[in-house]
Amino acid sequence: MILECNKHDFKTLIFGGSQTTGPLYHIEESDPYCIYNVDETGLTTVQKPVKVLAGKGSKQVGRITSAERGTLVTLCCASNAIGNSILPLFVFPRVKFHDYIIKEGPPGCVGFANPSGWMNSDIFIEWIKHFVRYSNCSHESPVLLLLESHKSHISVRALDLAIQHGITMLSFRPYCTHKLQPLDRTVFGPLKRFYNAACDNWIVTNPRSMTIYDIVSKVREPYTKAFSPSNIQSGFQVAGIEPFNPEFFKDDEYLPSSVTDRAAPNVVNTILGEP
After folding, report:
1. Using CA atoms, how far apart are residues 93 and 113, in angstroms rounded to an integer?
2. C-alpha count within 13 angstroms, C-beta hemisphere, residue 66
3. Distance CA 272, CA 275 (A)
4. CA distances (Å), 114 to each of 31, 86, 91, 111, 195, in order?
5. Residue numbers of the chain with a pLDDT score lower than 50
6. Using CA atoms, how far apart are residues 113 and 102, in angstroms rounded to an integer?
7. For an engineered disulfide with 111, which of 44, 102, 126, 175 has Cβ 3.0 to 4.6 Å away?
8. What is the pLDDT of residues 149-196, one digit of tens each?
9. Which residues contact 41 (CB under 8 A, 6 or more apart)?
10. For residues 74 and 115, what is the distance between their CA atoms, to the nearest angstrom?
């Protein structure tokens, strides 16, 4: 993975040119248990088949897989830098949501409906309420929430609700999220691998296609495995967040954009005299 911006731009936009004035300075000033990352990922009813072991020289290896086009369900998750996680929120591609849909999901999870199956501003507000309930954040116990700068995350109502509960929301630049999001780095990959394996096992013993109502029960065990304290802590470490390390990314990660690399110019205000 590479950074889609040059080194000087990254330092200026992310760290503000120094470790004491940039946006990520808030991280260095926060306790690890108060630093959270929230992100979404999609799971579908069509699994990605895992590799199959076969004898050397085998010409054909049979395997049952889903052949239909999949339906997407969004999973919204959050974890903090010491390895704890907030129970997930599911977004189902439905007009109305019913509680029985998440009955077999991870204990304490919540669900909502959106015809597209994606996160929107209204559902994200409900997620903030869910987050407040389990993180116990307040003005007396504030938290730092790291997230993408998607429009569903930064509505006025969401920002007001965050302020009311002592949540400082810090959004990443769009072209840096693949390097700075802890959940993207070390958690969502294992989650999808475990989920695909669970779907493979389910298909072998069930003579029908998976539906969105089957996804929740298939996520329960993979979620527990993927959101282990060690995986979560590794994500914060490789993103340079905890322990805080602005110099974590090496020079070779900026090579694709080296042609535009230059120091930020010093702008001097001058007043032109009249001719």
Report:
1. 6
2. 23
3. 9
4. 35, 21, 7, 10, 22
5. 1-4, 6, 16-21
6. 12
7. 102
8. 889 998 999 999 999 999 999 888 777 777 889 999 999 999 999 999
9. 74, 75, 77, 183, 188, 191, 192
10. 12
| Residues 85 and 77 sit within 8 Å (Cβ to Cβ) | yes
Determine the Cα–Cα distance for residues 247 and 204; give it in Å rounded to an integer.
48
Overall pTM surpassing 0.70 (yes/no): yes
Nearest residue to 81 via CA among 50, 28, 19, 36: 36
User: Phi first, then psi: what are they for 191, rounded to 5°?
Assistant: -60, -45
For residue 28, count CB atoms less than 10 angstroms from its CB and return exposed for 0-12, middle for 13-18, buried for 19 or more: middle
What's the rounded Cα separation, in Å, for the pair 151 and 182? 20
Contacts with 77 (C-beta within 8 Å, 6 or more apart), sequence order: 38, 39, 40, 41, 85, 86, 88, 89, 183, 187, 227
Listed residue (139, 177, 173, 145) closest to 158, CA to CA: 145
Q: What residue has token string 């949501």?
A: 97
SS3 content of the chain, % helix, strand, coil (to 5): 40, 15, 45
Whole-angstrom distance between the N-terminal and C-terminal Cα of the chain? 54
Choose among 12, 14, 36, 8: nearest CA to 179: 14
Backbone angles phi, psi at 249, to 5 degrees: -80, 130
Nearest to 175 by CA among 16, 35, 6, 41: 6
pLDDT of residue 4: 43
Instruction: Return all residues near 169 (Cβ < 8 A) that are at least 6 apart.
Output: 145, 147, 153, 154, 158, 159, 162
Q: Which of 70, 69, 116, 110 is nearest to 93 (CA)?
A: 116
Paired with 43 in beta bridges are 73
Q: Crossing angle, helix 121-135 and helix 156-164, to 10 degrees?
A: 10
